[in-house]
Amino acid sequence: MASLVQEDGSDDVMVVLTCIDRNEQDDFSHNQDEDAVMISTVDVYNWNFPSILKHTTIKVKAQRNRLIEHSSYFHGLLGGNFGNPDLEILVQWNQPTFLSLLASLFGSPVDVTSESFLSLFEGALYFGMEMIISKCMMWLTKAISVNGVPLLQLNDLLSIWEFGSELVNNYLPELCTTYLAKNFIWAMSCSSFVDVPYDLLLSSTKHPNLTVDSEMQLCDALLIWISANKEQYTEDCYINLLKQIRVTLLPLWFASGKKTYQSLSMCCNESYSGVITLLKQPFTMDPLQDNELLNLRIRLTELTQRVDVSCCTQMNPAILLLSVLPFSLNLEPQLRIKFEKSLINHETINAFPWTKWSNLTFEAVYEINLSNCPMLPLKVAIEIISYSFPSLRKLKAANHLSFKTLDVMQLVKKCPLLCDIDLTVDVSPVIPTQVSILSSFLSTSILRSSSIYWHNNPSNITKLILEGRNDIQDFDLRAISNICVSISYISLRGCTSVSDVGISALISKCLKLNSIVACDTSFGQNSVLALCSLNASYDHHPSVKHSGRNIPHGCNLQMLHIGGCKGINLSCFSKLMSQAYMLKNLCLRDTEVVDDVLFNFLGSSLEVLDVSNTKVSSAVLAHIIGRNPGLKCLKTRGCNNNKFLHHESKNLFFEVVRSCKLEEISVGWGFSYLSLQNLKPSLSSLKEIEVGLGGSLGQDGLKWLPVISPLLESVVLYFQVISDDIIINMLESLKHLKSFSLCHCLGEISSLGFKVRMPNLRKMRLERVAPWMNNVDLVNLTHNCANLIELSLLGCPLLNSESQKIISSGWPGLISIHLEECGEITKNGVVSLFDCCALEDILLRHNGSGIQKGFIHEAVTKLPMLRKISLDVCDAKDRDKDFDIPEVDNRHFLSHVKIARCKSHTHRCIFDPQHVRASTVSIHRETLVLVWDSKHLTTTLVKERV
What we know:
This protein is 33% helix and 14% strand. It is an alpha/beta fold. The strands form 3 sheets. It has a 24-stranded mixed beta sheet, with no helix packed on it.
């Protein structure tokens, strides 16, 4: 209702607007309204919305002229010669929204948010309030342009898109599409992502500003959406969506594993065909059509922060260069010639005319993952990324063997902001402290005279991972210490060519170093003394209070991993432990550490403790756990002195239960069902458990494990008594389980225990527990565990050559397969396993003497990602019982080859299927190990079987 009045002192006529909620009855009568409130726009700043909205009827005195001026709706009602004060106009609308609209018209700031946008915009459209429409659109435009945390929530976005889709010639759908495309990574993490309408999702995936870290990320999101909407749309709709994926840029293992998805099978086959084509012939632009060029380009937008092309087999310099160039198919002839030369000859990439375009840089990119890209020389890639990603801070480039230590300095010179580098390679299976070396020699060697090639300008590097790089030597560490003056984290795990002196020199010079990973190296007495001296050198700094004690400012060691290091003097190490108050992560596995050493540790910040295979006892663990309530990971497997039984363990249980919430635990000797019950309060958030030799959970413990720890993602059980019922209960209950291993377990186990669907399971290891497994059981396993990427079977004598085909067709995306003593799988050679084209790690031992002499060369040719092969001469088909080793230039991605030999290597080992458990490692005489790095091939003969 509206009536005309005039307030004292005002030249403008005041209109009384009566508003009820839009859901009220149309026959509303003002005279019957007993719950009304009167307010005025004159004091709009004093409106108390919560109080006003308690009334069912709201009357608003508003200035007539302002309503006419800013609302086409009220202009039509109140304009012209309107002057009848008795005319009733009923305004039915959402009361909070209508009040907000009126308040905005009369000067009060409008509060546009993700939740209020649609209601305000819809109301402003209905009442013709252009000013508010403009404010809403300004907010929406700003929300779309903001980088970082999205201002518009996904549920609200969907409502806006749906509303805009019903309007004619409206730009809301386009804005929503742009918003979803730019914030796709965030959107796919929202629970309401599966509610995105098909048309909006399709238009977003086609949008040039679609921002994702990788094609795999996009593919996963679309498959989740399709799975949730499989009953609502047609197969053609799903195929149209999946066509937007640039399948050539999918990781090979991922694409291969998706062959079981009907809608993706054709795409996956296309991806593999593209890989083979690119592997066999150089990349040229001539035969490629427009859409093929588009599908080769990495998605890069102004909002892209991370680029992940790891395990993208076909990634090469050409594709990387093409991705950063403007998408113009009409390249100038001279530029085309330069481009094609850069594809054929990587050295010419330096001469590429980068300055021709100003938009070749992507400022937002700070992280790139180029790991496991066998066709992409990292040194060449650096030339491209240094021009295109000037803000790069983090580089992951695992398994690039050709990238030498010398090249690291060129990398930090070209990417000055780089602070985090990961150059991990596979750790050599030959660790001097773990095996008996009979002989070793280098077949080739590229020696460097000194470190004068390394520039001396300080870098911004704070984290450097060189895991497994045997080509790292002491003078490399000296060069690193010269230029990485700010380094705080270094990983040298498995770097067997560096000495204790070299590590200690690095520690002494890098004063900010607080995290050291040096497992399986020569870290020893000198390095411990260097850490102690580093602390002592800070004694002149002001001390700080910690747990009521004054400690030197320099005691900032936070992570120390020295597992497998044998040259440690316990007296010196005990002193170091007494200084390391700030330690958060400590790994001492396979060392000679004893209780007295750890009793000196008085820190209270420890989160990870690994003392596996040491002589520590429950007493010292209780001491440490009691002082460190934030402990999340505890590994004690193989500790003979650590008995989780009787009175000595009660203190340990009490301390753990009282103070810790463990996420990972590894136990062994003395651990029982009673231990599990005592630890129950601290295991509710457990994600990984490993029970080794000497531990016995029993039927009751295994039964209650899923109840006590429902979030488990990894379960590894050694030497446990187990049954089908227990396995079924565990696999059905643990919905988050990704890795499941049963090793040398006893009990009544059959195929019935594995007839449970486990779509989330990625890794399975069955060692000496499935002698009953035949091809039918294997087929059932492929159906129930369809998404495995790692499979290990030991002691399955009923399998045969047909098992290969079952494995390759059931798990085409496998990256690791270990088959040992599995009947006659390789009796007729190895053919079908090559269909698992993404394999990175193969172990075939004692499965039938049918493997050809040239198997290794054939494997590296057909499996572009293959890095590790383990064989046994017993399985060689030829009379000389030998395998050809590929030349350096023909080994592709291969880095490790292990060939074991038994006592009598001229004859096939005899295994009795009825007594497979009797076979032990003692029958093996030696192992030939070949390891390639960036400098040479090392051939080692090891006494043990590795």
